[in-house]
Amino acid sequence: MKEAALEQQQIRVAPVATTTRRLTWLEPVLYLSPSLILLSIFVFYPTLRSIYLSLYLTNPLGKPKLFVGLQHFLSALTSGAFLHSLWVSLLFVLYTVPVGMLIALTLALLANQKLKGVKLFQLIFSSPLSISVATGSTIFLMMYNPMSGIINHFLSLAGIRPVHWLTDPAWALFAVGLVSIWMRLGFNFVLMLSGLQNVPAELYDAARVDGAGSWPVIRHVTLPMLSPTLFFAAVVGVIHGLQIFGEIDILTGGGPAEATNVVVFQIYQEAFQKFEFGAASAQALILFAVILALTFLQFKLGERRVHYQ
Amino acid sequence: MRAVKQALLYLLLGAMALLMLLPVLYAVSVSFMAPHEIDSFPPKLVPSGLYLANYAQVLRSVPVARYLLNSLLIAGGVTLGQIITAALAAYAFAFMNWRGKGLLFGLFMSTMMVPWEVTLIPNYLTIRSLRLVDSFPGLMLPFLATAFGVFLLRQFFLQIPKEMEDAARIDGCGRFRFLWSIVLPLSRPGMITLGAYTFLATWNQYLWPLLLTNTPQMRTVQIGIRFLMNEESRQYGVVMAGVVLFMIPAMLMLLVGQRYLVRGLMAGAVKG
């Protein structure tokens, strides 16, 4: 009796609509087609088309005219402008990713306490999520004004002379970086807080029972348990940092003296101001390769250090 | 001692919060300042009164309502489109089987790897050749499908027990009806998450609308802000009034949908 019942449970109920084998792919295709068609037109095709365009000299309308093979790639990697923009982007990532993560982590540690009203602080710390690139950049454009901006005003109270944040090649990238860090703080904070809240309380209790103080707890419990989050924040941060555009467009326009000419801004100028679509496509593909390489590198480096449950 | 530690924590939290909000608070402050207050040296931090002329000016010279409407329609359209296309595709991946399914799913996911710069130029050329520049379809089409959405919704759909599907089949429930009446309602958190994330991301889009909009009529909020400085010839009071007006929808979105936004951002991020 029992065996029969068990057997019945294991029998899969046959589909009500038993179509012939030829048509079993019809249904998935129907459901997949909107996504598939759109992705084909706007992701697959453009990727291939970019590769195709990158091998040609194009006219200002985007039509390929002359096959030049890898010429665009070679000149991009040996010329001043694109190479320089790669360097600027890498510098930018170096400025903004570690600092941004550190600040977010500190905020998350502070806000992850059982304190009355802490939810309000958590909301405030995540508020940059609602600031768009255009909004944040415009506000900072005003604050960075050398004469009337409040940043220089605060500095002057400490006796520091006015800094030409956006027009001094030595400071421009740093200034844009600061804006970017602030705008990303919302996302990074939410990420860190989420990671912190996923650390099992028992681990902390065990550590305290063993008599560990605050700092050793952070070093030996919090950070290892947080390492997947830190890793994710770093990878996503680098990918994002290499692709910034709006901040540059609003704050500096790529200057002064190409000091903030990041890769995407360079590609934008090449394609939509110089109308060199072929060369710009090659540059975009190089950026793709750089992103892949850096991501792969991070995975390789992180493999050993990241502690998974 | 505990009280001291708590007080210190509150102080630190308060200081950090103030620093973080400073840009926004200052923007609001400036938006209410009269021109002579803004130009005063040293710069003032707080306006002496509520000078409303800045807001009047920005509403007069900049089509604020139009920009907001454009952004709303585009973000709303893309969000709806993504939810529909992703739900259909995720349903196929979660509940159907066919040869090459794994490969196709891999293909879908691979599209997430390609940075938008690579697809940007051909997409621009495509939209231009379709004469859709400066139009709503042009601004929305490339973003109506999403591998991320498919991935996210598939995760939610997979949580629906097989028995439920079997029971529905026995009762004669067709494929689509099962999706519509059972799967979607059960996956509402997932769809709201995708919706909140997509809406905000589309609302904040910058480069694509910059390339595609030529006339002020079609500009989105972000591009409107970008050109505020030009149009108001550096009258910071008016510019900040515009910025504040355009910030309000996003802030409202954050206040209302914070839970879902956060969940959307964390999708696949942290284990557990």
Task: Write up this protein.
The complex is a heterodimer of chains A (309) and B (272). Chain A contains 13 helices and two strands; from the N terminus they run H-H-E-E-H-H-H-H-H-H-H-H-H-H-H. With 309 residues, chain A is an all-alpha fold. A two-stranded antiparallel sheet of chain A has the order 1-2. In chain A, a hairpin with a 5-residue loop joins strand 1 (56-58) and strand 2. In chain A, helix 4 crosses helix 8 (172-197), helix 4 (80-111) crosses helix 12 and helix 6 (133-143) crosses helix 8. Chain B is mostly helical. The longest helix of chain B is centred in the N-terminal third of the chain and has 32 residues, at 64-95. Chain B starts with a helix and ends in a 6-residue tail after the last helix. Classes of the chains: A mainly alpha (309), B mainly alpha (272). The interface between A and B is large, with 94 and 97 residues.
Protein traits:
heterodimer, A: 309 residues, mainly alpha, 2% strand, B: 272 residues, disordered C terminus
Please mark out the parts of chain A with pLDDT under 50 across 5 or more consecutive residues, or reply none. Answer: none
Query: What's the mean pLDDT score of chain B?
Result: 88
Based on CA atoms alone, the radius of gyration of chain B comes out at: 24 Å
Number of helices of chain A: 13
How many strands of chain A? 2
Parts with pLDDT < 50 across at least 5 consecutive residues of chain B = 268-272
Q: What fraction of residues of chain A sit in β-strands?
A: under 5%
Mean pLDDT of chain A: 88
Helix content of chain B: over 70%
Terminal CA distance of chain B reads 35 Å
The helicity of chain A comes to 55-70%
Order of helices and strands of chain A: HHEEHHHHHHHHHHH
So what's the overall shape of chain A?
Answer: globular
The secondary-structure class of chain B comes to: mainly alpha
Major sheet size, sense and barrel closure of chain A: 2 strands, antiparallel
What oligomeric arrangement do these chains adopt? heterodimer
